[in-house]
Design goal:
The structure is a single chain. It is built from 11 helices and 10 strands. The two termini are about 20 Å apart. Helix 6 crosses helix 9 and helix 10 packs across helix 11. The protein is α/β, with parallel strands linked by helices and about 300 residues long. It is elongated and about 60 Å long. The relative contact order is 0.20. Strand 1, helix 3 and strand 2 form a beta-alpha-beta unit. Strands 1, 2, 3, 4, 5, 6, 7, 8, 9 and 10 form a 10-stranded mixed β-sheet that branches. It has 2 domains: about 170 residues, D-Maltodextrin-Binding Protein, domain 2 (3-Layer(aba) Sandwich); about 130 residues, D-Maltodextrin-Binding Protein, domain 2.
Length: about 300
């Protein structure tokens, strides 16, 4: 939902949960903290780090008991959510946009940077130069792997015919790149990725120019994002593709649970900064409701309205 639309419909749903003080979420829920199984991605990634931080702030607020569940990423999370095996999920927004699972947004979080790296001595200078090369797209089931494939298609490459594709966890993909087992890797995360050892052993490829082609082909608004020169020491500034991260649940999520989750995002945003976001991104309250075409959960909408008066 965009910010203007949210404000425009505020009156229509203002009565839901009227009179409830969402800031006092403990009183709202009552009794023991409500358990929330949260699809959290792979350990070491920004999704998982965020889930751990959210669990910490929920424990201190004594409103929810967040139980991070390690998964392969966005698409795996959405399937688990649809199967009822988790209660909430972290997902890239482009994966959410094509999901068959009915979902509602709790809030927009950070931006994942879809990064493309090659070895420092590689002749590859553009995404199109990957034709005939070996490219690791990340773990099957992750949203970033889907976006990586789309990135190749936006550069007029057919991943199956024009490249040799593999799928590894990020740490293994980086090691394979450094050892010469693949020619390029594409992944999505925050900044920086320390294991990359850029620019001494690897180099980032500028991909931000492909944002318009991605938008035309896939009918999703991809952003061209700047990776500043100080993100990887001594590496020049490059542009890349940005995809928002969302916290989502299903329409069946209890109103009070969605409200309590949203309350944590609003009131504890300063404590929800994974290391990979520090210095480059901030969890800003005004952007939490900017969830694109995905509607907010009514409990989340009430919490935002209560907070902003």
């Amino acid at each position: 939902m965009d910010r203007r639309r949210f404000l425009g419909v505020a009156g229509a749903v203002a009565g839901i949960g009227a009179g409830v003080g969402l800031g006092a979420a403990g009183g709202l829920l009552g009794g023991d903290p409500v358990p929330v199984r949260l699809g959290a991605g792979r350990p070491g990634g920004m999704f998982h780090d965020f889930a751990l931080l959210l669990a910490e702030v929920a424990a201190s607020a004594d409103t929810l008991r967040i139980e991070p569940v390690a998964t392969d990423g966005s698409r795996a999370n959405l399937k688990l959510l649809g199967d009822g095996k988790i209660d909430a999920a972290l997902t890239l927004a482009d994966a959410a946009a094509i999901s068959d699972v009915p979902i509602r947004a709790i809030g927009r979080l950070y931006e994942s940077y879809i990064q493309l790296a090659v070895r420092a001595d590689s002749p590859v200078r553009t995404t199109a130069d990957l034709r005939g090369h070996r490219v690791d797209l990340g773990v099957v089931g992750s949203g970033a792997a889907m976006t990586a494939e789309r990135l190749l298609r936006a550069a007029d490459l057919n991943p199956e015919l024009d490249t040799v594709v593999s799928h590894r966890p990020l740490a293994a993909a980086i090691q394979t790149l450094l050892s010469g087992g693949v020619d390029a890797i594409i992944w999505g995360d925050g900044l920086p990725t320390p294991e990359l050892d850029a620019p001494r052993r690897t180099r980032l490829i500028d991909t931000g120019c492909l944002a318009p082609a991605l938008q035309r082909q896939f009918q999703f608004r991809y952003d061209s994002m700047t990776i500043p020169a100080d993100a990887y020491p001594a590496h020049p500034t490059v542009s890349t593709i940005g995809v928002p991260n969302l916290l989502v649940g299903t329409p069946a999520m209890a109103h009070r649970t969605a409200a309590a989750l949203t309350d944590l995002l609003l009131r504890r945003s300063a404590d929800l900064m994974p290391d990979q976001a520090l210095g480059f991104q901030f969890l800003t309250r005004r952007w939490l409701i900017v969830t694109g075409t995905l509607p907010l959960h009514p409990g989340a909408a009430d919490s935002y309205r209560e907070f902003h008066g």
